[in-house]
Amino acid sequence: MARTKVSIPAWSSQWVFIMAAVGSAVGLGNIWKFPYIAGDNGGGAFVIVYLACIFLIGLPILIAEISLGRAGKANPVQAMRNNALNNNASKAWTGLGINGVIAGLLILSFYTVIAGLALAYFFKSLQGGFLAMDANEAQTLFNSEVASPWVLGFWHTLFMLFTLLIVARGVRAGLEKAINFMMPGLLMILLVLLGYATMTGSFGQSVSFMFRADFSQLTWNAVLVAMGHAFFTLSIGLGTMMAYGAYVGRKMSIVQASVWIVVMDTLIAIMAGLIIFSIVFANALEPGAGPGLLFQTLPIAFGQMAGGWVFGSLFFLLVVMAALSSAISLLEPAVSWLEQRGRYSRAQATALLGAFTWFIGLGTVLSFNYWESVYIFGERNVFATLDFLTSSLMLPLGGLLIAVFAAWTWQKSKRAEVLYFSNQLFQQFFDTSLRYFTPFAVLVVFAFNLALGWLWTSVILIVGIVAYLGYAWRCHQAQAG
Ligand code: TRP
């Protein structure tokens, strides 16, 4: 087996690993995106579809991805190379790792811009900047924050620096320390805000908005959005979990950790939704306000409520911490890859990749002002193009490849060395999901997201299914023979 030139670190405990993975999963996806897509898609029924995607598709891929990292014992590129060599498979499987490294940097490039905005709002709130704010003023505030590329770029830069400082210090001194500090803080703030939400008088309305399912409201598009978001929110399909899995020791249980990660991520998304919608309803605001929900709606509420200064600051601090623990995990696959190639130290690798990603991020900064209507792909500006390319194409593609490798290419005996289920039923569910649900779901997402009309959608679906069955059949024969 090909070795990397640098020794691979290890998490100091199973618990730290779980916290780091939860930290990666819980981020802007939970607090910013989930509430607004749930709001846009009518609540209840969407939430149920989302939960189904998380447990039926997300959990098995998460388990598979972490296991592939532990089996390959390296950064995602090298890990997939090792896994391919070990299973007599094509070296082309390294492509899965490369796809992830690139997608991670691309996501990070816009992630730090949105997270930077949350950082700016945190300081605004601390200075009492939301006091007695009405809808117009909230709109004006948002517009003024994003209108200047210098201001937005400043916060993007600051947040990027935080990320780089942590990643440069390595797994134990950087990632673990930050996680140990941030995750308890995050949970505490969340509980305080949830307590506050129950006292707004609109908590019941918020609960029924999130859970009362009216399936007549559900559209096909909502199903696609839910599926795509399941990948994003669990940090799967990109190699983040593979990189983190490489640091998992032999004795730790991947299945148990994965169940924790999925349950925590889901609970936190739901709590964030309940908090935000309680505030929204208590102030007679619109739940379907789109991406601006967090930045244009909540400051009004914080400006009107008693103690809004404290709760507003806590809320945006929560967003910043959640985003930071995710940002480091977006950079880790690329940094570990460059470091383990042996030419650069970890600090150098972080600086190089950070500078590159920061530069790409300027495209997103400009997408909020000068380049707002400079369309790259369809009617999408730079930001929307990067988001579409990664969330709708590269992540599902990564997820599909992980599922195919784990379900077909990975030899049973090799897999058993790193992944064991104590429960037969669960094992069967895992195999079925990776073999049939995931490929089908991802193909559907692809075919529809490319939105080329019915003819092309059908062609993509049919070609995809035939190619998939052919490959599966060949692996099946090889393993049997
Ligand atoms: N899951 C994080 C969120 O919800 C974002 C994230 C971190 C991510 N690492 C990832 C998304 C890897 C996809 C792949 O905000």
Describe the structure.
InterPro entries: Na/ntran_symport, SNS_sf, YocR/YhdH-like. It is found in: Membrane. Its main location: membrane. The chain contains 19 helices and no strands. Helices cover 78% and strands 0% of the residues. It has one domain: Hydantoin permease (Orthogonal Bundle), CATH 1.10.4160. The model has no long low-confidence stretch (mean pLDDT 90). Helix 10 crosses helix 16. By secondary structure, it is mostly helical. The two termini are 24 Å apart. Tryptophan (TRP) binds next to helix 1, helix 2, helix 10 and helix 14.
What's the topology here?
Elements: H1 14-25, H2 28-40, H3 44-72, H4 76-86, H5 94-126, H6 135-147, H7 149-168, H8 170-198, H9 203-211, H10 220-233, H11 240-246, H12 254-282, H13 293-304, H14 308-340, H15 346-367, H16 382-409, H17 412-418, H18 424-449, H19 454-480
Helix pairs in contact: 1-8, 1-12, 1-14, 2-10, 2-12, 3-4, 3-9, 3-10, 3-11, 3-12, 3-16, 3-17, 3-18, 4-5, 5-7, 5-14, 5-15, 5-16, 6-13, 7-8, 7-14, 7-15, 8-12, 8-14, 9-12, 10-16, 11-14, 12-13, 13-14, 14-15, 16-18, 18-19
GO molecular function, one term: symporter activity
Pfam families: SNF
Protein name: Transporter
Order of helices and strands: HHHHHHHHHHHHHHHHHHH
Per the CATH scheme, the topology name is: Hydantoin permease
How widely separated are the two ends?
A: 24 Å
Q: Identify every distinct bound molecule in the structure, by name, code or SMILES.
A: tryptophan
Domain count? 1
Family: Belongs to the sodium:neurotransmitter symporter (SNF) (TC 2.A.22) family.
GO molecular function: symporter activity
Main location: membrane
Keywords: Membrane, Symport, Transmembrane, Transmembrane helix, Transport
